Each structure stands twice: as structure tokens, then as C-alpha cells.
Amino acid sequence: MAAALRLSCLCFLQLLIVIVLFINSSADNSIEEAEQFQSLSNSTMANRLSGNDELRHEHAVDDPEAIASMVDMSIRNSTERRKLGYFSCTTGNPIDDCWRCDRHWQRNRRRLADCSIGFGRNAIGGRDGRFYVVTDSGDDDPVNPRPGTLRHAVIQDEPLWIVFKSDMHITLKQELIMNSFKTIDARGVNVHIANGACITIQFVTNIIIHGLHIHDCKPTGNAMVRSSPSHYGWRTMADGDAISIFGSSHIWVDHNSLSNCADGLIDAIMGSTAITISNNYFTHHNEVILLGHSDSYVRDKVMQVTIAFNHFGEGLIQRMPRCRHGYFHVVNNDYTHWEMYAIGGSAAPTINSQGNRYLAPVNPFAKEVTKRVEPWEGSWKQWNWRSVGDLLLNGAYFTASGRAAPGGYARASSLAAKSSSMVGMITSNAGALS
């Protein structure tokens, strides 16, 4: 018994010695590797290539100093962009994060066309064309516009990416009638279209309008206006919309500041579809957005519009938007002001409200977000209107109707909504960037 006990203790001691030796050996190796790594980090590139090749391994890079410099630059640029409102990135806004984190965005302007979301995500504008630089703010002759003017740019037949040489205030004599495959890109300058006619997008496709201040638009018309290099014609009276979309598709209106026009700020009617209205700042206006021509115009049943990341600000009364017939995705917008209602409709539109922030006014009779205009009592109860994840503040309430099942809203869903708690950050830079 004693012999067996002594043998067991001896085996245990031997095992303990082996474990200690293994730990010491591992520690020595770790110290040696750490010393080698420190030496490698402190050595110059030439020394590493000449004297420490044996320390290189399969994951080593040819120029780690250059990589370190790139990482440091990336961190510094990212930090500085967050300090500067114009260049900030990683905001949670997928459109802005797509291009604003690129420190060379001015060289890569056309990349913007790949950043759209929602139903208008395939609007490429003038991505595949050359740049056109607007150098002249005049609009003396709507029939024979001078080269270098905005009107001369937008009527051309080929795709164009239109930019501006400097800050400009453009007063249009007549509607600015756009041709297909055009981008108006005012990033980096301060461009106002104001105190005259404004923009008409009629029977065309693939239009991007980005970065403009559009305000104080007036009714114009009963005049000849050119719409292409080979055609001009008589225009009857225009209503005075900031942006009028008529029978057109694949349209993206992004990062504009719009206010105080004679009629609507944005109207999309007469079978227009595949539209995204995003990152805009709307202020001081009555009837803000109209989507759908009339209750009797059933061709608007094809309409699909995304309203995303916009700020509906001070001085607004109604129609944010007002919808007819089609499918409308209202997602992650900030509603801080309205006097009558925020979202309205008639003719059984499908409205999918997701992740918005609705701050009701003080008026106790204007707390309801929604307004229905129905032909007879109770017909609206069959319309598919729903609110999912919306933040309703100061007594705001959303009156839902129709089907509760998600399947009824498939055609009115265009992107994944983010949490309503992020709306303030997502929309903080809405409007024309400056």
C-alpha cells in the first residue's frame, strides 16, 4: 500500500514538472516573438527587407507603413467630416453614407446615381453622359437659350450631368422643360431657382434633381418654350409648382430646399411612377406634395412613390403628401409642423407609413396625422393605410384602415425602415447642403 502511494506521488510530481517546463517554454517563445515583433515595428522598411525576412509570414504586407498611413488618414478624415455638416458621413442615412464618406466625391460626382433608394432607385439621370457646366445664370430667351445656361443644358438630347461653375440665382421666364437622362447637381455651390417659373418634368424618364433651393415659383405660360434642340411649342399657363412631374418615370428628387410657391412644391400626376422624394427640406407652404391627378384618373393606379428622410418643417399646412390611387411608402421622415394634417388621400390609395416621427401641433383639433377625402361615408375603411413603428408625439394619432396583414402592402414597400428613434439623425442634414 505504501509503495503504491509513493509511486502515485512520483507520477504526479513528474507531471507537474512537465507542465511547468511547457509553460516556461511558451512564455519564453512569447517574449521572443514579442521582442521580434517590436523590433519589426521599429525597424525601417529597408532593414526589414534586408535583415528580417525570416520574420515575414503569409499575412504580411509589402508596405505596412503605407497601410498604417492610409488607416490614420481614413480615421482623421472621418472625424473631420463628422465635425463639418456638409461632409459628415456614417449618419445611418443610406443615401448620404453612400457618397458623402468619399473624400473625393467631387471627382466622383456621378457615383451619386448609384446611391438612390426606394421606387426611384433606378433613376440614373445623366450618369452615362458628359459633364455640362452652367456658367450663365440668365434665361433671356426660352426658345433660343444661350449655351452655358441651365435651360440650354436640360433640353439637350444626350445624357448630361449638369453642374454649376459658381453660386447662382436663376429667375426663369418660363417653365424649365427637361429632357430625359439629365442630372442637375448643385453640390458645392449655392443655386437658387426663384421668383419666376420653375421645373417641369413632362413625358420623360431618368431625371435626378439634387441640391437646389427652389422657392417663390410663380404661374407662367401662354408663351413659346423649347423642350429639345429640335422642338419648341406653345405652353399654356403653368400652375407655379416648384417641381411638376407629368407622365414621367424614374425620377429622383434629393436634398433640395423647397418653399413658398404659387401651387405645390412637388406634384406627380398623369401616370407618373418610379419616384423617390428624399432628404428634402419643406417649409412655409400650404399644399406641399400632390401624388395623383384626380379621383377619376385611374391610370395613376400604377404610381409608386417613396417619401423618405425628408424634414417637413415650419410653416406647412397640409399634403405631406396627398395621395390618389397608387402605392406610397412614407418612411423615416420628420414631421415637426402641420396645421391641418400630414398625410391625406382619396380614391383608395395604399399608404405604408413606417418609422416616421410625427409631432402634432398645439391645436387640439389638428392632432390626427391622416385625412381621408371619400365619396361616401365609411368607404375609406377599406383603404389600406397602416402605421408601423411610427413615433407619435404631443397627442398625434394615425387612423389606420384596411387590411392588417403585411401582404396587402407589398407594392407599397420600397426599402427597410429604420427605427423612428434615428429619424432626428437621419434627417439632420435634409435640404440643400451648404
From TrEMBL:
Residues 167-364 form the Pectate lyase domain. It holds the Pfam family Pectate_lyase_4. Keywords: Calcium, Lyase, Metal-binding, Signal. InterPro entries: AmbAllergen (IPR018082), Pec_lyase (IPR002022), Pectin_lyas_fold (IPR012334), Pectin_lyase_fold/virulence (IPR011050), PEL (IPR045032). Residues 1-27 form the signal peptide. One of its GO terms (molecular function) is metal ion binding. Binds 1 Ca(2+) ion. Required for its activity. Its EC number is 4.2.2.2. Coiled coil: none annotated. SUPFAM superfamilies: Pectin lyase-like. It catalyses: Eliminative cleavage of (1->4)-alpha-D-galacturonan to give oligosaccharides with 4-deoxy-alpha-D-galact-4-enuronosyl groups at their non-reducing ends. Pathway: Glycan metabolism; pectin degradation; 2-dehydro-3-deoxy-D-gluconate from pectin: step 2/5. Its cofactor is Ca(2+). Gene3D superfamilies: Single-stranded right-handed beta-helix, Pectin lyase-like (2.160.20.10). Belongs to the polysaccharide lyase 1 family. This is Pectate lyase. It comes from Solanum stoloniferum.
